[in-house]
Amino acid sequence: MKKPAPKESPSIEKSPFIQEKDILSDLVEKEGSSLLLGRYTMNEVIAVLIKRNFLNDARKRNLWPLTYELDSSEFPLQRLQIFYKEKAPENLIVDLKIKEGIFKLKVDLTQDIPDKKSGYDFLILDWLTLQNPLQRFSDEKTPLPGQNHPGLNLGKKVLDIFIYLARLRKKDALLAYPAYFHNALLFSRQFRFLNPQKEAEVMAVRKSFPDIPFKELAWIVHLECLRDRNNKVYEWQAEEQVFSLNKSLKSYFGSKRYKERVKESLKDFHFSIDRECYERKREAHYTKIKTQ
């Protein structure tokens, strides 16, 4: 579904006080895969973006007008893309894959989290890209792994939108599968891994190298130049990272047992950097980029 934004947006200046009751009017009666999460029209999605000032921020960055596309071919997984001016890969601003789903906890965690026989109901972020297609990287401004353009610096604001949406949908939590190590590190400001050992793993990598810049550490991990205590390559494996809204999940992450398991697991990790590996692979990577 493609819907170009009108020349006169519905809009930032004219509708500064949109109410939740207006955004959510008649949602119960509307269902279908052509709607975001089977419920929200694109006008309602735009209304939320207005309410949360996303469109204002886009205009400040000269990213205007906007075009929207919703792909529901793999429903319930949906892909929402937002483009600058017209739909084209080089104009991509937001690339979101999202779905709702019931998640059954792993057996080894059920002793610590009150069992919900039906499972926990999550809003799941399967993929998220935020970028400014009008900007390019340079020798001074280098990318993180997976980036094609500099980011929008709107990560927290966009995350707040998803938390807001999860609350509206009465979800137990917002769940993400961080594709890259640095995503997990960024999410860790508000999210926790269901698995305390995975929580400890990410903490241990960061704590092992407090003087190494965030971006450099991200590339060290991505280029597989980090070694574990057995001198084996550390490979990033995504697991469920959660922003809890459910009382029992909040209690789980705040519990003494969870914190103790994280603390104990920290002792199992020891990391070192293969500097020769990093320098060689980094040089090869940037040489490849410059020749493209």
Q: Could you characterize the architecture of this molecule?
A:
The chain is an alpha+beta fold and about 290 residues long. The protein contains ten helices and ten strands. It has helices spanning about 20-25, 40-50, 55-60, 155-170, 180-185, 195-210, 215-220, 245-255, 255-265, 275-290, and strands at about 1-5, 65-75, 75-85, 90-105, 120-130, 175, 190-195, 225, 240-245, 270-275. It has an eight-stranded mixed beta sheet. β2 (about 65-75) and β3 form a beta hairpin. α6 crosses α9. It is flat, with a radius of gyration of 21 Å. Residues about 1-30 have low confidence and may be disordered.
Order of helices and strands: EHHHEEEEHEHEHHEEHHEH
Question: Strand share of the residues?
Answer: 15-25%
Please compute the radius of gyration using only Cα atoms.
21 Å
What class do helices, strands and sheet pairing give? alpha+beta
The averaged pLDDT comes out at: 86
Assembly level: single chain
Main sheet properties? 8 strands, mixed
Low-confidence stretches: 1-31
Instruction: Please provide the count of β strands.
Output: 10
Helix count, per DSSP? 10
Distance between the first and last residues' Cα: 33 Å
Query: What's the overall geometry?
Result: flat
Give the fraction of residues assigned to helices. Answer: 25-40%
How is the largest sheet built, in terms of strand order?
Answer: 1-2-3-4-5-6-9-7
